[in-house]
Amino acid sequence: MSVLVFVEGLNGEIKKSSLEAASYGSQVAQQLGTTATAVAIGEVHEDALAKLGEQGISKVLYDADDRLKQFVADAYVKVIAKAAQQESAKVLVFSNSNIGAAVGSKLAVRLNGSLATNVTTLPKTEGGSFVVTRGVFSGKAFADVALTSDVKIIAVKKNSFEVSSNGGANATVEKLSADLADADFAAAPKETVMQDTDGGVLLPEAEIVVSGGRGLKGPENWHLVEDLAKALGAATACSKPVSDLDWRPHHEHVGQTGITVSPNLYIAIGISGAIQHLAGVNSSKVIVVINKDPEAPFFKAADYGIVGDAFDVVPKLIEAARALDK
Amino acid sequence: MKILVCISNVPDTTSKINFTGDNKEFDKNGVQFVINPWDEYALTRAIELKEAKGGSVTVLNVGEADAEPNIRKALAIGADDAIRVNAHPKDAFFVAQQIAAIAKENNYDMILMGKESIDYNGFQVHNMVGEMLGIPSVTPAFKLDMVDDSTARLEREIEGGKEVVEVKLPFVASAQQPMSEPRIPNMRGIMTARTKPLAVKEPVGAEVKAEYVGYSKPEKKGGVKMIDPENAGELITLLRNEAKVL
């Protein structure tokens, strides 16, 4: 038996969230006294795969089928199921991404396994049990879940686990072929459109997020958010009213019915901090709130606060951020 | 076109979350329950498709009798009939098995639901149902249109972009904004909802694979440190030297 980690690639490199999953997987393997194998699909450089040794991965199985460059759930499931069978994997680890959670859910059915998504801790394995903690109630609570099937599948919440780099030698990379048929690609996307981030950072992967609310008064003032984000190497986000007003696209909406983020630093500008917004950000490690209303509820959830007008305060922050040596 | 929309009954987004019984159970005391907001996007889009193309919309809830007011609300918004599988929704796998069992009996053209529930945040059930039924599951979708009578075109979110997917009926999809603009039931809808059929079925036997053994709440913050707005640049220094996040 072993632990199997699915790693996702982006532009030939391995996504940070997948490096977190690999670090998680190799620690679970250590706990269970076994080894961790990774399975990679699509377009990833072979040297990037070998470097997974740094995260404690000893072997990487790689299916380079050209058709797998884009995400097709049924085909991905087939490849990972084959890797799981070959490795007699009892624990499968994914990043809790749209791809990882989707493939994990389908594998839970196919392998008759127990699944936990949005997982924030290593398993507790005393006395033969297998209990993980996962985020529930949209960031307002955590639940301990016992996974009772023989096969356990875990999707690790992004940014809740450090990327380790204390592993050892390069991982060995082996080819894997799952003999995919045309039928496995029946639901293949016709078209993939990537956002133009203008050299910026994608929100779900970001370690720093700068977010704007209605206090910015209109989309024409968003350069304040964007310039501060650029100076800090951050992604931009917004509150629900802002996306409802179409000032910003929906994929930037952070909150209970938008996306949940857990960056190291979340800077909220002109956001009052409704309970639904807090739910989407309260697992951020450090929260900064800038609001001209000293009674804004967000200050209660903040680590640092500035009571002031965004139009006065933010330019000063941009200037100070630009002056930092990187 | 026959559409099945799965809804869950969840605490209102403004709810304070507490636990009872040695932190082993969610405390429903004083909590207002609503249709899961993500499911509302699926429900409204299903009703819009029915209005444009004809057919029927059935809502399905796996839950106990206290979910019925919100099932009636879905009927008031415009669904034609409803099914409640009379069981506590123990875990995602259990719920998916109930949905798959109902779907096998009824040959729906599409099965829609929200991308996740705002209480358990699983993002699991739709993909499990697709796998159990051997049909595609497109998740999370923010646009859904019919190309012709047998093909749907969906746009789904991926990290950092979107994909356009065309699938043959039947399929499963999960919804997120801006798939539709959720509706508020009108008086006529509320009146007719009272007499629309709501069937109660017993669950199919299904094992629980993820057992919820306890809950906890995030640690409270230590308090906020205020910075003089005149000296706002000081914040950046603190973030680097004190918080060590820059």
Automatic annotation (TrEMBL), chain A:
GO molecular function annotations of the record: electron transfer activity; flavin adenine dinucleotide binding
Cofactor-binding details, from the entry: Binds 1 FAD per dimer.
Gene Ontology biological process terms in this record: fatty acid beta-oxidation using acyl-CoA dehydrogenase
Binding site for FAD: R214, G270, I271, S272, G273, A274, I275, Q276, H277, N291
Cofactor list: FAD
Keywords per UniProt: Electron transport, FAD, Flavoprotein, Transport
Residues annotated as domain Electron transfer flavoprotein alpha/beta-subunit N-terminal: 3-189
InterPro entries in alphabetical order: DHS-like_NAD/FAD-binding_dom, ETF_a/b_N, ETF_a/FixB, ETF_asu_C, Rossmann-like_a/b/a_fold
Pfam families, sorted: ETF, ETF_alpha
SUPFAM superfamilies: Adenine nucleotide alpha hydrolases-like (SSF52402), DHS-like NAD/FAD-binding domain (SSF52467)
UniProt similarity note: Belongs to the ETF alpha-subunit/FixB family.
The name this protein goes by in its record: Electron transfer flavoprotein subunit alpha/FixB family protein
UniProtKB/TrEMBL annotation, chain B:
Keyword Phosphoprotein in record: no
Record-level Gene Ontology MF annotations: electron transfer activity
GO cellular component, one term: cytosol
Domain of life: Bacteria
Record's keyword terms, sorted: Electron transport, Transport
NAD listed as a keyword: no
InterPro entries tied to this protein: ETF_a/b_N (IPR014730), ETF_b (IPR012255), ETF_beta_N (IPR033948), Rossmann-like_a/b/a_fold (IPR014729)
Electron transfer flavoprotein alpha/beta-subunit N-terminal domain span: 23-210
Family indicated by similarity: Belongs to the ETF beta-subunit/FixA family.
Protein name: Electron transfer flavoprotein subunit beta
Upper classification of the organism: Bacteria, Pseudomonadati, Bacteroidota, Cytophagia, Cytophagales
